[in-house]
Amino acid sequence: MSVSYIPFVFPGVPQVRCAFQTRAGGVSLGEFGGGNIAFTVQDNPEHVIANRRSLLEGLRPQGMTAWAELMQVHGDGFVFEPEAVACETPVTAEGDGMATARPGLGLLIKTADCQPLLIAHNSGAYIAAMHAGWRGNRCDFPITGVARFCERYGLEPRDLLAVRGPSLGPGKAEFVNFDKEWGDPYLPWFDANSKTMDLWGLTRHQLERAGLLPRNIYGLDICTASNNEQFFSYRCARRSGRQASLVHRIGERQG
Predict the structure, then answer these.
(1) What average pLDDT does the segment 134-142 reach?
(2) C-alpha to C-alpha distances, 11 to 163, 179, 243, nearest whole angstrom
(3) Phi/psi at 229 (nearest 5 deg)?
(4) pLDDT digits (tens, 9 = 90+) for 23-53
């Protein structure tokens, strides 16, 4: 069964396509049941390769010919114009953000509760993808990543559009050590009664601080932990698989 995904297109930017994978389909079994695409979670490598091939083949009709990815480390490392990687090859280059102007090259972010952030310039000529776990929020990666993206390609933040994919929702993001892990500056997004953080709201705030217009910030408000049958969730299972979120551009470069 083919690996499934939710398509997303930014309003007014049809040449940029996004895909948010679900865990449905694929050949992985047990705790990785479905379409796990990560080599790092002790899944059968042959199953991982089959899932990755299925995902890429499913996206080829949308104009994606290959993808780039990184070994994500919950930091703020950013790679520009990354090289494509084969479906059969685990990556070794580290980082949590990528950007490109190359048509057909997808930028792949792997998650199982963390936030995948996919970004496009309104010309459709430049795209970026970021992995924002809570540590990424804590180090303001949505802000610094946008700044570096704009600096590299000479862009204005107000001309960017961003979409956040399925991730840990406000009711499930529990932090019992809030004072140690976050602190007073993050109190507006913390519910002291439930000990939970509104990471979605925090990310939107950080993107606005980065200069994005509120109307250009989108979100697929689906909690991975609350919908574990549809998405992998590390909070639900430590030996969880990972799903992919991808963005790519099609057609000739403009501008």
Answers:
(1) 97
(2) 11, 40, 24
(3) -75, -20
(4) 999 999 998 999 999 999 999 999 999 999 9
